């Protein structure tokens, strides 16, 4: 049987199930006792297994099969979930996701599943210590820096050291894992290391080193060594002290997290252990509940078909316009009523078709909890991601594009905004940071907010860096407002180097975020209070295809002016027009605003019917701070218009950004006000 | 000049009239033939760009072929047609005096265009076909629809 025809469906559904599994896994992690989540996961996994087996993706089928066995045990309460089992399942899901991506890209979806399969089997067999060994072996084999960092301190320390650390922590000490890197051309490495130890000993206690003290003394290390360290001092102070020793190149300090669950003993079927470290996440649960309520029955439609439907519909609208006209001319009441009825129905239809393109931002937001979960493990930070307004709808085309910029902003907030638990504690904040991802409608726009309660933006450092990079002229630096300084983060030159991240880090790649959002017709801004957090606010148009516009008449031609650039419309007497430098101007609320005649600029042929009036209709438009008054013959009215491109043949037409089709079937051009204001 | 490789045997062409001559475009490049309807002028474009029309929901640019070929202008009449052609990603309507025939032409009957035929620049032509007493001028749409001139105009304006 030819499976290709089912491939698209398979891919789409797999993605959906994986999404569901991920979401439920996160819920489960926060609420391990809740079997309903396990049941949901099991159901999705079961479907995935069946689908992949049918499609002949053997690796995927076997992996899901093993995962299913584990889930089955949990479901029947023969096995209690803990964070290690969670990790194995998460890892398996990642693998499956990778396979689906491979299949999407035309691959055969094969992958080496032996390790996770072995792990899953060992969980089922109850032989979990063996599994842990494998895990350790894998971690070493892969040498993935992320993995290494995630378990920083833990694997390196023996029971005795752990006990010391635990006690010190209870006494209010900071536990740190310090990695000191010396300059490459450092001549007396052992001596430098000795100086580091000397300094550290004066402020706290070195618990363990890697490599061993002996090796370090004999210079048996490359350029870096690591230390488990207990101190009452701040991370910042330790860092500065070490950096003050000459020839030290870099110091990396990570807090050591002591987890109860990570005690060396195997933890199969030990309940409550991991429950102690989990937290309730009512927000997330609420969001899901809403999702389930709003879910209902759906059918997948190709976006191209929706486009075709919309085009066909605008045809219908045109005919409706003609019918209305005819009915008016013929003046027969039955005809009139029928046409009126039809108009109303087609109006409703139009709304439905437009809203059919709208999808909840949930689709994008869904993937972030998982990302945050992984990232906070990597960074050794604690953070709670609150998602609000996931049901807010956006046009499909916008949804597809918004994921990457949001991902970027969230990573930024977690990486550079939220401080380490130790620092937070010192600042009098709860150890667990909060990142709020909120979406809401306002007027014709959708706002998406990424807000953290982290350290905020360090203006002095940003400014200093901007001057170094030549983005800001030092002469102007003093006069810059906070807002202007914050905006610097989006400057193009700011993003290039990682060096940035040791200052504020906020600059990494934000220019990309900005340009992406602007390409969607939106804007992004940032606001920050030092020590209290940072908020990024994205404003997006509801859809890329429908905008509000003011239709105007210029002689016999009609033009649309996007409402977003209009300040207001006004009628002026001809004698109110003044001349300044051979340029017609008007006094608009105390400001001198130049007038632009659309008739002149578009060389509109003069209509026979034109009458010379003593009043001029003016649309005041703006571009940033600048304003201009567009002179038209009359206002037709405000209308929602469907944006159309002029096509590939007519590119860069002066001051025209596109076209729309009016109710009478004619094309009206959309004026690009930005081009008219110099 | 002749692309024998892609035409084997016969080609089907739509025949249209421009001034007093007959032209042809390959049928697979033609999407539809429309009657003249309201054209919205697009300011600051070359003279041969008459504007845009609403073609079943798609905004489609319209070129007056007489203008394009620098022939004398004429008043649009009942027989005036818009031939919607598609070349690659370009979709453009061509205003012609009349369009009323579809014929098959043997590839052998196509000859390279003479240097000058009826004032139309040779670059726009793909060849000339002799059919009994008729002379059919086959258009090279790629050249006719080249956006170079529009870009040049853009450069001047800019």
From TrEMBL, chain A:
Annotated CheW-like domain residues: 546-678
Signal peptide: none
Occurrences of domain Histidine kinase (ranges): 322-544
SMART domains documented for this protein: CheW (SM00260), H-kinase_dim (SM01231), HATPase_c (SM00387), HPT (SM00073)
EC number: 2.7.13.3
Catalytic activity: ATP + protein L-histidine = ADP + protein N-phospho-L-histidine
Modified residues (Phosphohistidine): 46
Keywords from the named record: ATP-binding, Chemotaxis, Kinase, Nucleotide-binding, Phosphoprotein, Transferase, Two-component regulatory system
Gene3D superfamilies, per the entry: Histidine kinase CheA-like, homodimeric domain, Histidine kinase CheA-like, P2 response regulator-binding domain, Histidine kinase-like ATPase, C-terminal domain, HPT domain, SH3 Domains
Enzyme class: transferase
Domain HPt, residue spans: 1-103
Protein name: Chemotaxis protein CheA
Organism in which the protein naturally occurs: Brevibacillus choshinensis
Automatic annotation (TrEMBL), chain B:
CDD domains tied to this protein: CheW
Domain of life: Bacteria
Protein name, per record: Chemotaxis protein CheW
Cross-referenced Gene3D superfamilies: CheA-289, Domain 4, SH3 Domains
InterPro entries: CheW (IPR039315), CheW-like_dom_sf (IPR036061), CheW-lke_dom (IPR002545)
Species, as recorded: Brevibacillus choshinensis
Pfam families xref list: CheW
Residue ranges occupied by any CheW-like domain in the UniProt entry: 10-150
